[in-house]
Amino acid sequence: MIDEFLKNHGEYYNDKYFKDMTSLKMGGHICHYVVPNTINDVKEIIAYLKTNHIPFKVMGNGSNLVCGSSEFSGVILSLKNLNNYEINNTEIYAEAGVLVMGLCQHLAKEGLSGMEFASGIPGNVGGLVYMNAGAYRRSMSDVVKSVLVLKDNELVWLDNKECNFTYRHSIFGDHPHWVILAAKLQLEHKPSEEIYALMRDRLERRKTSQPLDKPSAGSCFRNPDNGFAWELIDGIGYRGYKIGNVCVSNKHSNFIINDGDGCAEDYLKIAYEIIDKVKNKYGIKLIFEVEKFNC
Ligand SMILES: Cc1cc2nc3c(=O)[nH]c(=O)nc-3n(C[C@H](O)[C@H](O)[C@H](O)COP(=O)(O)OP(=O)(O)OC[C@H]3O[C@@H](n4cnc5c(N)ncnc54)[C@H](O)[C@@H]3O)c2cc1C
Q1: Who is most buried in 43, 70, 169, 246, counting CB within 10 A?
Q2: What kind of fold does domain 85-208 have according to CATH?
Q3: CA-CA distance, 193 to 128, in Å (whole number)?
Q4: CA nearest neighbour of 134 among 236, 24, 255, 223
């Protein structure tokens, strides 16, 4: 019944696993995985799922998620087929499924500046807007002009202020059933060489400081006020600490990596040990930057 409905609204699969859909490469079976083809398909699917009280989650590129090993009986929606974008002078309209790394390369070629900070972030537009992704003191809130959202079965444009952006958070985090469909970004003209130079610099910094050759979900914890999570993790001696096939990276101790066939349960054991020890030693409560799902 549900599979028939989903098949009529996009590509449908019942044999996907979170471990194949996330950058951390962990997680169990997804009973229903659908890739809608149009915004209208998304609208009809969400209405159906809500009416029938079927649990669902929209997934971006899966680069911020720690997914548990048990089966998810609900529906995962991937917006990767909503992947068009248009450039109108300095304004970009980008659908939620556009991969940001590719977009940044094109913007650099077109001499459009503002998204350089995001050129090494492996998510898509919807995912970056959702968590106000950022790096090098810049974040999506600096470039987002407005966001097209499916909110209570209505398509609504929210302007930047209405998105309530704060550090790694937005209004969308408070409304898990809203779906980000597209965003308008405001950029500025600059010579392409300048943009490419900044992007190269940022990428070099990532390559030297982050374990990009190992599966991860990026930084495990947000940085606390006036400090860095990695310093606190080093302070409790957890650099390189391992449980099963999950380990705190030797290269960057705020990255917890999958060092084989690791599972979310071991990831979280390490993370909660870190939270406890950092709290005891420094009186600081670390907050997850990664998102736990189905665990
Ligand atoms: C090597 C590496 C480096 C990283 N570096 C950075 C960094 O420098 N800065 C940074 O901020 N992050 C970084 N990250 C983390 C991650 O890439 C970002 O958080 C990114 O924004 C997640 O986007 P995504 O599309 O993968 O979202 P996902 O991980 O798929 O989803 C994250 C959340 O967004 C929600 N979501 C996604 N799309 C939509 C939508 N269309 N509508 C509604 N909700 C949606 C999901 O439901 C989920 O709750 C890094 C990750 C890795 C693996």
Answers
A1: 246
A2: 3.30.465
A3: 25
A4: 223
Ligand 1 site, residue 67, Cβ cutoff 6 A: no
Taking the CA atoms of residue 223, residue 216, residue 75 and residue 183 in that order, the dihedral angle to the nearest 10 degrees is: 60
Indicate the pTM of the whole model: 0.97
Question: Is 36 within 8 Å of 9 (Cβ atoms)?
Answer: yes
User: Could you name the CATH architecture of 2-78?
Assistant: 2-Layer Sandwich (3.30)
| Ligand 1 centroid to residue 191 C-alpha, Å | 29
> Alpha-carbon distance 61 to 50, whole Å?
23
Please give the chain's pLDDT, 295 residues, in tens.
899 999 999 999 999 999 999 999 999 999 999 999 999 999 999 999 999 999 999 999 999 999 999 999 999 999 999 999 999 999 999 999 999 999 999 999 999 999 999 999 999 999 999 999 999 999 999 999 999 999 999 999 999 999 999 999 999 999 999 999 999 999 999 999 999 999 999 999 999 999 999 999 999 999 999 899 999 999 999 999 999 999 999 999 999 999 999 999 999 999 999 999 999 999 999 999 999 999 9
Among 130, 147, 255, name the best residue to mutate to test ligand 1's pocket (greatest count of ligand atoms within 8 A of Cβ). 130
Alpha-carbon gap, residue 165 to 169, rounded angstroms: 6
CATH number for the domain whose boundaries are 211-293: 3.90.78.10
Q: Whose CA is nearest to atom 4 of ligand 1?
A: 218
| Owner of token pair 């398909």 | 41
With vertex at residue 101, the alpha carbon angle to CA 82 and CA 46, rounded to the nearest 5 degrees, is 25
